[in-house]
Amino acid sequence: MTRDDALALDAVDPLAQFRDAFDLPKGVIYLDGNSLGPPAKTALARLADVGAREWGQDLIRSWNVNGWIDAPLRVGGKIAGLIGAQPNEVTVADSTSVNLFKLAAGALSLQPGRATILSETGNFPTDLYVLQGLAALLPGVELKAVDADDLPAAIDEDVAVVVLTEVHYKSARRWDMAALTAAAHAKGALVLWDLSHSAGAVATDLNGSGADLAVGCGYKYLNGGPGAPAFLFVAERHQGAIRSPLSGWMGHAEPFAFDDAYRPAADIRAQITGTPPILGLAALEAGVDLQLQADPALVEAKGLALADLFIELAAERCAEFGVALASDRSARRGLHVALTHPEGYAIVQALMARGVVGDFRAPDVLRFGFSPLFLSFADIWDAVEILHDVLATAAWDTEAFRARAAVT
User: Fold this and answer.
1) Sign of the torsion angle spanned by Cα atoms 21, 336, 86, 112
2) Is 124 a catalytic site residue?
3) What is the pTM of this model?
4) Residue 13, φ and ψ in degrees, nearest 5
5) pLDDT score of 331 more than 80
6) Catalytic residue of the set 18, 30, 219, 368
7) Spatial CB neighbours of 65, under 8 Å, sequence gap ≥ 6
8) Would you call 5 a catalytic residue per the annotation?
9) Which of 77, 124, 181, 351 is the 20 to 30 A CA-CA neighbour of 48?
């Protein structure tokens, strides 16, 4: 593969027109959209309008006249189109961690007599932390984490819910959602999926897979901005019975009746807790609207092709310097690639100084994401050339690049 070959692929890329929709700095190859997506130009314009007109001029009337009160369901309904759900099964609310807590507790409420939450070792740490905290709050409830290879066999008659991230945050290994869900259902267990590295990246089909519950974040491939609100999915068949442990006023059947006693809404609204974050929702909606213009199958196919090119070039150009592939090479994977090197942190910092932005995950992982809407094949070729130069010249070998910042 030469750079001319990469340019030839870009010339026939059906998603190339989306690149200009993003506000990206010149001279930067951004390979970290799997951690924080860049802003869509429409998102920045939308934030300005919401701030100046809706908030600044219409003030509190905007809850009605500008549809603020409906935003969680409206944006959730749009996200549903990206994850294979019905619009009435998804809402935007809270953070991914809070939603995971709510739905894991809700799964237990649907499974009387079962007391085990099952997950995999090495799952995204906050997911395990949330589940540990939930188990500590509920007498008799246990979190059991096993190796991924052993997980299907660990689903027994005491497992209430299996909690998994569809695309692993380090390796990008992707679970077979339909097969795992079917295996859990065969044992009477529910499955709660974390779609943080899936939504907007791979063609997820929750309903086609028979999924029960799901959560996901808005600031990665959905480009909703730092701290963007998250989303959650509850299959329609569970909505009347599932109970959220956070019974906030927006989950009430009649929030503005101001009753003393809580009466949960009978639909997805029961999973909304407090006042919707309108500025965050505005930015997220702009990112989702842009994502909806692209065919999810084309998005996934291009992302995998970008990742394949990166893997191929890195193997050719960088393996001699001690860089190894830590990602799954199978067809079932997400849109990021993990390399390992003992000096991974310093190498990532040196790359950033050269305009190639990835991130580092302890203890030794260099992680690069391949967002299909704004990256080109030539970007990938150039990024590996810069990585090769950083390694060949040992440009990473400075105290400045080794000094650890608070966020890695």
Assistant:
1) negative
2) yes
3) 0.96
4) -75, 120
5) no
6) 219
7) 58
8) no
9) 77
In the residue annotation, 219 being an active-site residue is answered as: yes
**220 catalytic, yes or no?**
yes
374 SS3 class: coil
For residue 74, the model assigns a pLDDT of 98
CB under 8 Å to 60, separation ≥6 — which residues? Answer: none
Please tell me which residue in 194, 212, 359, 379 is annotated as part of the active site. Answer: 194
With respect to residue 222, please indicate whether it lies within any of the assigned structural domains: yes
Residue 12 — pLDDT band, cuts 50, 70, 90?
A: very high
For 131, phi and psi rounded to 5 degrees?
Answer: -70, -35
| Residue 209 within a domain | yes
Arithmetic mean of pLDDT, 356-363: 96
Catalytic residue among 22, 30, 101, 124: 124
DSSP calls for 161-229:
EEEEESB-TTT-BB--HHHHHHHHHHTT-EEEEE-TTTTTTS---TTTTT--EEEE-SSSTT---TT--
The answer to whether residue 374 is catalytic is: no
Q: Quote the number of domains for the chain.
A: 2
What distance in Å separates the CA atoms of residue 233 and residue 393, rounded to the nearest whole number? Answer: 49
What confidence tens digit (pLDDT) does each residue in 246-265 have?
999 999 999 999 999 999 99
* pLDDT for residue 31 is more than 80: yes
Residue 300 in this model has a pLDDT that exceeds 90? yes
Task: Scan for tokens 């409420």, then name that residue.
Answer: 109
271 touches 261 (CB < 8 A): no
Q: How confident is the model at residue 408 (pLDDT cuts 50, 70, 90)?
A: confident
Tens-digit pLDDT profile for residues 121-132: 999 999 999 999
Catalytic residue among 78, 114, 173, 220: 220
Q: Which of 189, 181, 213 is nearest to 85 (CA)?
A: 213
Examine the fold and report which residue of 259, 292, 325 is the final residue of a domain before the chain moves on. Answer: 292
- Of 367, 374, 377, 379, the active-site residue reads 367
Distances (CA, A) of 315 to 13, 194, 326, 366: 24, 31, 12, 14
**What one-letter code names the amino acid at 348?**
V
Q: Supply 154's token pair.
A: 């660990």
> Is the domain of 72 the same as that of 86?
yes
Following CA atoms 400, 401, 407, 408 in sequence, which dihedral angle do they give, to the nearest 10 degrees? Answer: -170
Distance CA 293, CA 18 (A): 9
Range of the domain at 300: 3-30+295-402
